[in-house]
């Protein structure tokens, strides 16, 4: 485990390396920015920084180091004039310890040994929590798979969508979003499977059955209340069916879940990814517009087409109408889903001479492999 010393005085760093190398794995840096790059790699167990450094002082460096590597134990070296600020850092929990300069080797060694032990304790506790978390989730998903295979299958589909979308949206803690998707249907453990089967389309459920079905996010959130570290995941699950119009404070991860869930239900009912996305866009007030746009790009790129808003002059053979093509007076000229061929293109141009076409309108453009990858990259940049 690495002990990192950061000081603008090269002589001090050389002294630390010389006196401590036989006891510890020592790294030294005189530039705090370079030191942060080392911390970013995740190998630093203890970071020791001089309080007074030009540019970035020790407190700022250690604060940034803590953001990059929360498990890194932080120690500050300070002169007597800076004792008050160093003590405040320890009292507020931002620092493990402060050492006054000059610091004798024996005192420094004891402090480093205590810091390394603290690091071992923190990491061991987190590993225990991680193992407990993994075990609890495994048991819950296995129970769901046994009691309600329909809900389990849906959760697996939602998880795949969320896993693909989270990095495209640059969501913070994407593992939490994927976990929320995996556990999104866990409340269905207590719902009859036939209600879950029919619930995805809503239309065939009685009002009483519909009420039961829509309780599952709350039930699922409550089921997870005793599992540590899942507070954010529980919030996403609890709000997964909220409309953005009704809940503007809906967590961003839950906004993605809402789109994934509604898309999955619509695709099951309609049998078409393109139609399912089109139906989502008919009620835009329900969804986060940026997430919906990125989701549409991802889903349609997967089908080999990319959405574009164009004017009539840009319409080409092979394009597919992504919406009903309307005149300015509200008359439908061509139906959504039509693949443009020479005949329909000529017919539309003739119609446009008599009545103005409402522009722009949405089309789906078939893409080659390379072009599809370029469009996907463009969609990721837009979402970020």
From TrEMBL:
GO annotation terms (biological process): phosphorelay signal transduction system
Residue ranges of domain Response regulatory in the record: 2-116
Keyword field: Phosphoprotein
Keyword Phosphoprotein: yes
4-aspartylphosphate: modified positions: 50
PANTHER family the record matches: CYCLIC DI-GMP PHOSPHODIESTERASE TM_0186-RELATED, TWO-COMPONENT RESPONSE REGULATOR-RELATED
Protein name: Hydrogenase transcriptional regulatory protein hupR1
Taxonomy of the source species: Bacteria, Pseudomonadati, Thermodesulfobacteriota, Desulfovibrionia, Desulfovibrionales
Gene: hupR1_6
